[in-house]
Amino acid sequence: MTDNLRIEITRANQISAELGKQIDALDHLAFSGQIHHDPDFGSIRWASHDWMVLGHLGSELVTQLCLLKREITVSEANVWVAGIGGVATHPNWRQRGLASQLLRASEAFIRTEIRTPFSLLICADETQPIYAHCGWQTVAKSLTFIQDSQRRRLETCVMILSLINQPWPAGEINLCGLPW
Fold first, then answer.
1. Is the dihedral of CA 161, 173, 49, 90 positive or negative?
2. Any long-range contacts for 93-97 (C-beta under 8 Å, 24+ apart)?
3. What are the pLDDT digits (tens) for 38-75?
4. Are 55 and 63 in contact (CB under 8 A)?
5. Radius of gyration for the alpha carbons in the chain, expressed in angstroms and rounded
6. pLDDT in tens, 95-146
7. How far, in Å, CA of 112 to CA of 71, rounded?
8. Which residues lie below 8 Å from residue 132, measured CB to CB, with a gap of 6+?
């Protein structure tokens, strides 16, 4: 665990051009070369986010994630969620608990600012233990989303973090828009 991680939560529309370049560079380092089991993964467009949670060591951006608020459906139920996506840590700084620190900071922000009953993320099976260690629970192995007015299915691990004392509804998850 690295104790001197400086965490910053900022609105996505307030990111400077320079910081945007750092975020893009970290995304490229963290996600290039990943193998996806879904053959249509490369054609997916991703939702815009509302907030960025950024972790800095000194002046270096080393870890980040995106947040958004969305109403989705689970079977027939409408459910508000805080979506977490784009969790990325620089390869040189992995395995030090940095992403876990961002997740905890995000949970506090979601409870006080976003105020949704659940948070939801999708992840590769290989990274599922990281989220489980932080209290997230797997609720599905696929979900649907809308892209170009078409309903599409994504085969992936779907996890939630319950922020209230309420069970997650059973049934098919529809993100009602682009995934994050």
1. positive
2. 93/2, 93/57, 93/62, 93/63, 96/1, 96/2, 97/1, 97/2
3. 667 778 999 999 999 999 999 999 999 999 999 999 99
4. yes
5. 16
6. 999 999 999 999 999 999 999 999 999 998 989 999 999 999 999 999 999 9
7. 18
8. 138, 159
Q: Domains in the chain and their CATH numbers?
A: 6-174 (3.40.630.30)
In the numeric block, which tokens belong to residue 23? 């975020």
Q: Does residue 170 contact residue 155 with C-beta atoms inside 8 Å?
A: no
CB contact set of 17 (below 8 Å; sequence gap of 6+): none
Dist CA 53 CA 10 (whole Å): 7
How many DSSP H helices and E strands does the chain contain? 3, 8
Task: Tell me the residue type at 123.
Answer: C
pTM of the full structure: 0.90
Residue 22: burial class (beta carbons within 10 Å; 0-12, 13-18, 19+) = middle
User: For 6-45, what is the HEC assignment?
Assistant: EEEEEEHHHCCHHHHHHHHHHHHHHHCCCCCCCCCHHHCC
- Residues whose CB falls within 8 Å of the CB of residue 10, separated by 6 or more in sequence, listed in order: 51, 52, 54
